[in-house]
Amino acid sequence: MSVTSLKGVSSMKLHRDIGVTQKTAWFMAHRIREAWGLDDNAPPFAGPVEVDETYMGGKEKNRHASQKLHVSGPSGKVAVVGIKDRETNEVAAKPVASTDGPTLKGFVRQNTAKGAEIFTDDHAAYHGLPQHTAVNHSVGEYVTGWRTRTESRASGRCSSAATTAPTTR
Questions:
Q1: Domain extents for the chain?
Q2: Exposed end of the chain (fewer CB within 10 Å): N or C?
Q3: pTM of the prediction?
Q4: Which fold has domain 49-168?
Q5: 71 Rama class: left (phi>0) / alpha (psi -120 to 50) / beta
Q6: Exposed, middle or buried: residue 45 (CB in 10 Å: 0-12, 13-18, 19+)?
């Protein structure tokens, strides 16, 4: 149920579906969510990997008048960087304080094995990574060699269909 639900499953629905008390369902749901959390001891991705960053948060027009920042761009949003192993379809993502070179390169190094091929967009923060290939979106390039399908697919914004759903770690 939690895998097929967009926003998870409430303990009330779970208790009705599996025939336990709401208190038991709440306890079980928390244990399941904890088990599905990020595994800090997971081995790094062997590659090839795709890396991308995005900003998550609501639209300015949808905020209450007292909450509006009256600025454009990513202001008021959280930067999230993600990495996907093309071989295993596993995905790892985390919020980051900034999208500068040291932050993004540190995330890539922490989550990839040495020698792994790395595919990114042309963001300058990725320049200097070993085994790095970039696509240049600013000139209309979206594929270089390999088929490029980054974490935007994990958030449902990519139009290419996948044969298997990515798993998170």
A1: 1-36, 49-168
A2: N
A3: 0.60
A4: Nucleotidyltransferase; domain 5 (3.30.420)
A5: beta
A6: buried
